[in-house]
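Justification of computing resources. Each target in the renewal requires a structure prediction run like the one illustrated here; the chain below, 153 residues long, is used simply to show the kind of job we budget for.
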Amino acid sequence: MTTTGGTPRQEDFYQRLRQRIRKWVEREGRNHEHAEVLLYAPDLFHVLVRLTLDDRVPSKEKTKLGIAVAYFIAPIDLMPEALLGPVGYLDDIALAAYALNSVLNAGYGEIAQEHWAGDEDLLHVTQRLVAIADDMLPKNMVRKLVRKIGGGG
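Resulting structure tokens:
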């Protein structure tokens, strides 16, 4: 597990996201079927940003990661957080998982693990999220998200 170590603006977004989701889960989302998945959002955002800034990651992979970072902070997306609250991060989480899966499959897992701030193994988390993405999101949404990062689907 690493520290956040990003820019102050990234740190602020990371901390606000962490606090917002934790509060929501504790208060009203405790019984939501994807509450546990939503708790991954801040750490996924963190690792995406860190990998995007890492010189050891090639441009092709950084492009996918950058799209996923931009999607996290975009106010309007397929499931807008402004309308849905933290549940709106499920599409961001799915896109992050697909982008990270690409990086891991391209052989940059060790670098990704260096930047991972989560408690669980990044490979395990990523594989789990990719496996359940279709169940988390409305029909055909995963295909739209994967197209955003230039994957198949």
